[in-house]
Amino acid sequence: MMTESAEASEFSVAQAKVRTSYDEVPYASYPYAQSHPCRIAATASLLGLTPRDVETASVLEIGCAAGGNLIPMAAAYPKARFLGIDLSSKQIDQARARAKRLGLANIEFRHQDVTSFEKSDRGYDYIICHGVYSWVSDPVRDAILGLCASTLSPDGIAYVSYNVLPGWRPRQVVRDAMLAHVADIADPAQRLSQARAFIDFLNANAPKSPYGEAIREVASWLGSMGASYVFHEFLEIDNAPCTFKDFMKAANRNGLVFLGECELRSMLPENYGAVAQTIRTLGGNDVVAAEQYIDVFSGRTFRQTLLVPAARLPAISRNVSPDRLASLHFLSSFAAVPTDDPNFPHMFKDAIGTTFKTRIDNVRRAFQLIQASQPGSSSYPQLLDQLKAAGRPLTPADQAEILKSLQTALMIGLLTASTRPIEAGRRSVERPVALEVARSDAVHGTSTVNLRHEPVELDVVARHLLPLLDGTNDAAALAASLNQAVKSETIGFVREGQRVTDDAEIEACIADHLGRVLRQLEGQAVLLPSETGAKA
C-alpha cells in the first residue's frame, strides 16, 4: 500500500515530466473562438442567465500556453483583467514577451501548477480551461474543477473542454498502438518522427475489416494534424477521455452544475436526424442523460462544457425563447445559394453544408443583410432598421417571423451568437487599418488573430504588409514598400517555376499580391473600420 508521502512524490515526478514535455515540445498557442467570454456569455444569456459584461470582467485561463487565446482578449478589452497560468515556463516567458510588445497592462501570466493556485481570490467571471482536463492526471483534474468552484464569482461561468467517450475510443486504440511503438524512444523529436511514420504505416496496411476501417479513418485524419497536436494528444503521458456523465459527477462533487455546451446546436436532438426522438425518449427530462445519449448516437469525441455554481441552477432555462436573441449579435459565414424547392425558394448555406430555407421575402432580405455584413456581425435591431430604411414596412408579425428565423438559424449552427458587436473594416478605404495585435504578430511570426477571435495564417507578403496597415499608408505606399522588398530580395515572385526579374512583371505581381492580401485580410476580419483607425 502506497503511503501519502510516496503518493505525493509520485505525483511530483509526474508533474515534472509534464512540465518538461511542454517545455521541449511547446503546444501551439492559438485563439479559440468558442472559448471567448463573449461567446460564453451569449450562450448563458440564451439559457436564462445574466452573465458579467465582458468589458469589465475578470478572466482566468488554466493552461494558457503562450497566451494565444488570452492576449487578444486583453488587447480588445482594456478595462477587463486577465490571468493566465501554465506549467510550462518556456511558454509563460513567450506569453509575457508578447503581452509586453503590445503594451498590455491588464494581463498577468504565472508559471504555476493548478494544484498550487491560491484559492482565496474569489471573483473570476469567466474561467477558461481549453485542452487541459483530459491531458492531466486524476488529482489535477479534480484540482481544476475545485479551482473553478472556489474562484468563480457568483455569476461566473467556467468553460472546460475534454475528450469524451465512447466517440474517442477508436482514437484510443491508435494512441495505444503509437505509444507501444515508441515506448523505447526517449528523444521527443525521434518519438514524433517514428510515430508519424507508424501513422502512415497504419493508414496503408490496416486490415480490410470494420476494425481496419476504423484504424484507417483515425490514421488518415491524424496524418493531417500538426506536430504539437500529435505529440501532446497521442504521445503524452496522460490522455484520459471520459463519459459526459462521469465528467458531470466530478463537477457536481465540486459544487458545479451543467449550464450547457458552448455550441447550443450540439444540444438539440433534432440536429442528429432520425435518432432525435430516441434521444428524447431515453433522456427523458434529465438533461445530463440526454447529453450522454447524444454522445452515444453521434460519436462525438470532444466537448466544450459550460459549468456554473450550483446556486445558479434554478435560474437556468433551457427552453430558449426568441426574445432572448434580441440583444445579441450574430456572426456568420453563409452565402445565398440556388434551390429548386418551390415551397422554399430562398436558401442559405455555409461551408460545412448547414442550410436554412425560407419562403418569406422579409426573412430572405434579412439574411441577405446578414451576409452583406460578413465578416462583421449583425443584430436583430440593426436588421429591422436596415429593412425599414430600405422602405420595407414591417408589421409586428413580420418582426416576430424574422426573430424566429434567427432563432432557427442559431439552433442549427448557421449563426453564432455574441454579446458584443464586431465591426469589420473594408479594403476600399484609402488607408486601411489592421488590428494592432495582427500588425505586431506579423513582425514576429506566421500567424495572428482576427476580430472574431479566430486564427489567421500569414504568408510572406501578408507579413510584410500588415505592419504597414496603420492608417498612414495608401495603396501606392504599400506597393512601393513591396517593390523595395523585392529589390532587397526580402520577397521574390515566381511564375511557372522561374523567378520574376522583369520590372514590368514585378510591378504586375506587386499589384496582384497587394490586391490579394487586402482581399484576404478583409474577408478574414483583420481590418478595422476606418472610423476606429485612430484607436488601432
What's this model, at a glance?
This protein has 536 residues and is of the alpha/beta class. Helix content is 44%, strand content 14%. The chain folds into 4 domains: 30-165 and 241-315, Vaccinia Virus protein VP39 (Rossmann fold, 3-Layer(aba) Sandwich), CATH 3.40.50.150; 169-234; 325-418, Outer Surface Protein A, domain 3; 436-535, no CATH class.
Task: Write out key terms for the chains shown.
536 residues, alpha/beta, Rossmann fold, Outer Surface Protein A, domain 3, three-stranded antiparallel beta sheet, globular
The general outline is globular
Which superfamily, in CATH terms, is the homologous superfamily of the largest domain? Vaccinia Virus protein VP39
Strand order, largest beta sheet? 3-2-1-4-5-7-6
Can you name the CATH architecture of the largest domain? Answer: 3-Layer(aba) Sandwich
Largest sheet: 7 strands, mixed
Tally the structural domains.
4
Description:
By secondary structure, the chain is α/β, with parallel strands linked by helices. It has 4 domains: 30-165 and 241-315, Rossmann fold (3-Layer(aba) Sandwich); 169-234; 325-418, Outer Surface Protein A, domain 3 (Alpha-Beta Complex); 436-535, no CATH class. The chain is built from 19 helices and 17 strands. The protein has helices at residues 4-24, 37-46, 70-76, 89-101, 138-151, 169-181, 188-205, 210-222, 227-234, 244-253, 276-283, 287-298, 361-373, 380-389, 396-411, 436-444, 460-465, 475-487, 503-523; strands spanning 58-62, 81-86, 107-111, 124-129, 152-163, 256-261, 302-309, 329-331, 335-337, 346-349, 355-358, 378-379, 416-418, 447-449, 455-457, 494-495, 498-499. The protein has a 7-stranded mixed beta sheet with strand order 3-2-1-4-5-7-6, sandwiched between helices. The protein has a 3-stranded antiparallel beta sheet with strand order 12-8-13. The radius of gyration is 25 Å and the shape is globular. It starts with a helix and ends in a 13-residue tail after the last helix. The mean pLDDT is 92.
